[in-house]
Amino acid sequence: DTAVSQTPKYLVTQMGNDKSIKCEQNLGHDTMYWYKQDSKKFLKIMFSYNNKELIINETVPNRFSPKSPDKAHLNLHINSLELGDSAVYFCASSRRENTGELFFGEGSRLTVL
Amino acid sequence: AQKITQTQPGMFVQEKEAVTLDCTYDTSDQSYGLFWYKQPSSGEMIFLIYQGSYDEQNATEGRYSLNFQKARKSANLVISASQLGDSAMYFCAMIRPIQGAQKLVFGQGTRLTINP
A42 vs B44: CB contact, 8 Å cut-off? Predict the structure, then answer.
């Protein structure tokens, strides 16, 4: 069974469209994250939710809106897509305690044309 | 602010040789954690090894060991007896706990290529 699963894995869309990426984890973790990996492979945190509460909100355009319906799901909705949004988006989860390891999903590659 | 620096954009190593990937960090926190992740060409992020700032011994996981030098703020990854399957991007990261979440700050990554 996949621990952290993201859908879709690939997404190609036009500028100006609105799209969503879904993430689910079956590890029973309390905390979930969205990371963005740009074309230079640099990974940067975007958001983190702990038990449906927003904990980390980095400097991200407000076109990006995370939604956590329950602690096992954290979806990412992006409005008015721009060329610069093209990247790989990784979902991750971790236990609440400071034990360290984040479990990553396989990534969702978004291409904006 | 926390910062992770990986100074080696790319490395080429012969199969079966040991390889050291450099990582230095900067933080004002007393308690922190350091990670290494591997990202093969397929794209997934694979956890390799973790070192807590208060751990007295260097972490080891199979062929992976972390050379932790706290005074120098370095956390180099050592891979012994490298294999072709070790070819991948390697990311050093520092973790900072924030109210139940754990913010990972990543370095720029090192692309390791193992030659047969």
Answer: no
Residues of B in contact with A43 (CB under 8 A): 91, 93, 104, 106
Nearest to A56 by CA among B65, B42, B41, B104: B104
- Neighbouring CB atoms inside 10 A of A38's CB total 12
Pairing of strands B88-98, B110-115: antiparallel
Instruction: Give residues with Cβ within 8 angstroms of A106, minimum separation 6.
Output: A5, A6, A9, B43, B44
pLDDT tens profile B44-90: 999 999 998 888 899 999 999 999 999 999 999 999 999 999 999 99
Contact B101 A55 (CB under 8 A): yes
- Position A58 pLDDT exceeds 70: yes
Q: At residue B62, what are phi and psi to the nearest 5 degrees?
A: 65, -120
Type of residue found at B6: Q
